[in-house]
Amino acid sequence: MLMKKMVKQQNKYWIIFFLSLFLVACTNNSICFDLEKQEVISESRGNLKTLTVENVKEISPLIWIKKKENVKGSRRFSFRSLDTINYIYKNSDFIQKEISYKGLVPNSIYEIMNSSNGDAAPHKLTIETDSVGVVIHTDCNCT
Protein backbone atom coordinates (compact mmCIF):
# COMPACT_ATOMS: atom_id res chain seq x y z
CA MET A 1 0.00 0.00 0.00
CA LEU A 2 2.80 2.39 0.90
CA MET A 3 4.61 1.54 -2.33
CA LYS A 4 1.50 2.37 -4.43
CA LYS A 5 1.17 5.71 -2.68
CA MET A 6 4.83 6.53 -3.34
CA VAL A 7 4.49 5.65 -7.04
CA LYS A 8 1.38 7.86 -7.37
CA GLN A 9 3.21 10.71 -5.64
CA GLN A 10 6.22 10.25 -7.91
CA ASN A 11 3.98 10.27 -11.01
CA LYS A 12 2.46 13.55 -9.86
CA TYR A 13 5.91 15.12 -9.69
CA TRP A 14 6.78 13.90 -13.20
CA ILE A 15 3.56 15.34 -14.59
CA ILE A 16 4.20 18.69 -12.92
CA PHE A 17 7.80 18.64 -14.16
CA PHE A 18 6.82 17.99 -17.79
CA LEU A 19 4.00 20.53 -17.73
CA SER A 20 6.32 23.22 -16.42
CA LEU A 21 8.92 22.30 -19.05
CA PHE A 22 6.25 22.55 -21.74
CA LEU A 23 5.11 25.97 -20.53
CA VAL A 24 8.65 27.34 -20.37
CA ALA A 25 9.75 25.96 -23.74
CA CYS A 26 6.69 26.94 -25.75
CA THR A 27 7.21 30.20 -27.54
CA ASN A 28 5.88 30.96 -30.97
CA ASN A 29 6.69 33.42 -33.70
CA SER A 30 3.55 35.57 -33.40
CA ILE A 31 4.13 39.22 -34.20
CA CYS A 32 2.04 42.34 -34.53
CA PHE A 33 2.74 45.88 -35.72
CA ASP A 34 2.38 49.01 -33.57
CA LEU A 35 1.40 51.79 -36.00
CA GLU A 36 2.04 54.58 -33.51
CA LYS A 37 5.59 53.49 -32.65
CA GLN A 38 6.33 51.96 -36.10
CA GLU A 39 7.53 48.73 -34.48
CA VAL A 40 7.20 45.01 -35.03
CA ILE A 41 6.48 43.44 -31.63
CA SER A 42 6.85 39.81 -30.57
CA GLU A 43 3.58 38.64 -29.03
CA SER A 44 5.29 35.71 -27.33
CA ARG A 45 7.93 35.84 -24.62
CA GLY A 46 10.66 35.37 -27.23
CA ASN A 47 12.96 38.02 -28.63
CA LEU A 48 13.09 38.92 -32.31
CA LYS A 49 16.18 37.28 -33.76
CA THR A 50 15.33 36.74 -37.44
CA LEU A 51 12.95 38.88 -39.50
CA THR A 52 12.50 38.75 -43.26
CA VAL A 53 11.17 41.86 -45.01
CA GLU A 54 9.87 41.55 -48.58
CA ASN A 55 8.51 44.37 -50.73
CA VAL A 56 5.65 42.62 -52.56
CA LYS A 57 4.83 45.62 -54.77
CA GLU A 58 8.29 45.90 -56.36
CA ILE A 59 10.81 43.37 -57.50
CA SER A 60 13.47 44.00 -54.91
CA PRO A 61 15.74 41.75 -52.88
CA LEU A 62 14.57 40.17 -49.68
CA ILE A 63 16.01 41.81 -46.56
CA TRP A 64 17.13 39.51 -43.74
CA ILE A 65 17.34 41.21 -40.36
CA LYS A 66 19.27 39.10 -37.87
CA LYS A 67 20.52 39.77 -34.39
CA LYS A 68 24.28 39.91 -34.08
CA GLU A 69 26.26 37.19 -32.31
CA ASN A 70 26.27 37.46 -28.50
CA VAL A 71 23.29 39.85 -28.55
CA LYS A 72 20.07 38.88 -26.82
CA GLY A 73 17.77 40.70 -29.21
CA SER A 74 14.60 42.49 -28.24
CA ARG A 75 10.84 41.91 -28.27
CA ARG A 76 10.53 45.07 -30.44
CA PHE A 77 12.06 46.11 -33.75
CA SER A 78 11.63 49.70 -34.91
CA PHE A 79 11.40 50.83 -38.52
CA ARG A 80 11.54 54.46 -37.35
CA SER A 81 15.17 54.20 -36.22
CA LEU A 82 16.99 51.14 -37.54
CA ASP A 83 19.15 49.34 -34.98
CA THR A 84 22.61 48.77 -36.49
CA ILE A 85 24.24 48.04 -33.13
CA ASN A 86 22.33 44.83 -32.33
CA TYR A 87 21.15 43.72 -35.79
CA ILE A 88 22.71 43.08 -39.20
CA TYR A 89 20.96 43.47 -42.55
CA LYS A 90 21.60 41.07 -45.45
CA ASN A 91 20.04 40.11 -48.79
CA SER A 92 20.31 36.42 -47.97
CA ASP A 93 20.50 34.21 -44.93
CA PHE A 94 23.25 32.21 -46.62
CA ILE A 95 25.46 35.03 -47.88
CA GLN A 96 27.26 36.65 -44.96
CA LYS A 97 27.68 40.06 -46.66
CA GLU A 98 25.99 42.92 -44.80
CA ILE A 99 24.15 45.59 -46.75
CA SER A 100 23.33 49.21 -46.12
CA TYR A 101 19.58 49.04 -45.50
CA LYS A 102 17.85 52.41 -45.50
CA GLY A 103 14.39 51.33 -44.36
CA LEU A 104 10.95 51.07 -45.90
CA VAL A 105 10.24 52.45 -49.38
CA PRO A 106 7.30 54.87 -49.82
CA ASN A 107 4.00 53.66 -51.33
CA SER A 108 4.84 49.99 -50.87
CA ILE A 109 3.39 46.83 -49.40
CA TYR A 110 5.64 44.58 -47.33
CA GLU A 111 5.39 41.13 -45.85
CA ILE A 112 7.34 40.73 -42.63
CA MET A 113 8.02 37.20 -41.45
CA ASN A 114 9.31 36.25 -38.00
CA SER A 115 11.20 32.95 -37.81
CA SER A 116 13.13 33.66 -34.61
CA ASN A 117 12.01 30.49 -32.85
CA GLY A 118 13.12 27.55 -35.00
CA ASP A 119 10.82 25.15 -33.14
CA ALA A 120 7.68 27.00 -34.24
CA ALA A 121 6.10 27.87 -37.57
CA PRO A 122 7.01 31.31 -38.96
CA HIS A 123 4.45 34.10 -38.57
CA LYS A 124 3.81 36.67 -41.28
CA LEU A 125 2.13 40.07 -41.30
CA THR A 126 1.57 42.67 -44.01
CA ILE A 127 2.20 46.41 -43.77
CA GLU A 128 1.62 49.30 -46.18
CA THR A 129 3.61 52.54 -46.35
CA ASP A 130 2.50 56.06 -47.31
CA SER A 131 4.25 58.59 -49.58
CA VAL A 132 7.11 59.14 -47.09
CA GLY A 133 7.66 55.50 -46.03
CA VAL A 134 5.64 55.56 -42.80
CA VAL A 135 3.51 52.48 -42.14
CA ILE A 136 -0.16 53.45 -42.34
CA HIS A 137 -1.84 50.04 -42.43
CA THR A 138 -1.24 46.51 -41.15
CA ASP A 139 -3.23 43.31 -41.13
CA CYS A 140 -2.06 42.57 -37.58
CA ASN A 141 -2.23 45.69 -35.40
CA CYS A 142 -1.05 45.52 -31.78
CA THR A 143 -3.79 46.54 -29.39
Task: Report the sheet with the most strands, covering strand number, pairing sense and barrel closure.
Answer: 6 strands, antiparallel
Structural class: alpha+beta
The gross shape turns out to be: globular
Q: Compute the gyration radius: what is it?
A: 20 Å
Spell out the helices and strands N to C. Answer: HEEEEEEEEE
What's the pLDDT, averaged over the residues? Answer: 82
If helices are DSSP runs of H or I spanning 4 or more residues, what is the number of helices? 1
Query: What is the number of strand segments?
Result: 9
**Unreliable spans:** 19-25
Helix fraction bin? 10-25%
User: What distance lies between the first and last C-alpha atoms, to the nearest angstrom?
Assistant: 55 Å
Strand order of the largest sheet: 6-4-3-7-8-9
- What amount of the residues lies in strands? 25-35%
Short description:
The protein has one helix and nine strands.
Secondary structure topology:
Layout: H1 2-25, E1 31-34, E2 39-42, E3 50-55, E4 63-67, E5 76-78, E6 87-90, E7 109-114, E8 123-129, E9 135-138
